[in-house]
Design brief:
By secondary structure, the protein is of the alpha+beta class. Strands 2-1-4-3 form a 4-stranded antiparallel sheet, covered by helices on one side.
Length: about 80
């Protein structure tokens, strides 16, 4: 099973790379990326991103960017995850 590689980007610059076990599921990786995004937010932004979909005060900080690979969350900085060998 291929491991996961998680990368923190600031703009296009790679700032940090983590390697995680391949046994983690895609939904577990998505939750990890949301937690990393939350670390870069202020409290009001976390609350706004936690509002239900359809709420006009909701922000998209915790929404996945696009579909497919790599998995991506956040604006700037942002985080990606993909399986590696």
């Amino acid at each position: 099973m291929k491991d996961w590689q998680v990368i923190r980007y600031d703009s296009l610059e790679r700032q940090k790379i983590w390697r995680l076990p391949g046994s983690l599921t895609e939904s577990e990786i998505e939750e990890l990326l949301r937690r990393l995004v939350a670390h870069d937010l202020i409290q009001d932004e976390i609350v706004g991103a936690s509002r239900p979909k359809g709420d006009p005060l909701r922000s998209s900080h915790f929404d996945r960017n696009g579909a497919g690979v790599p998995i991506s969350f956040g604006n700037n900085p942002h985080y990606t995850a993909a399986r590696i060998s």
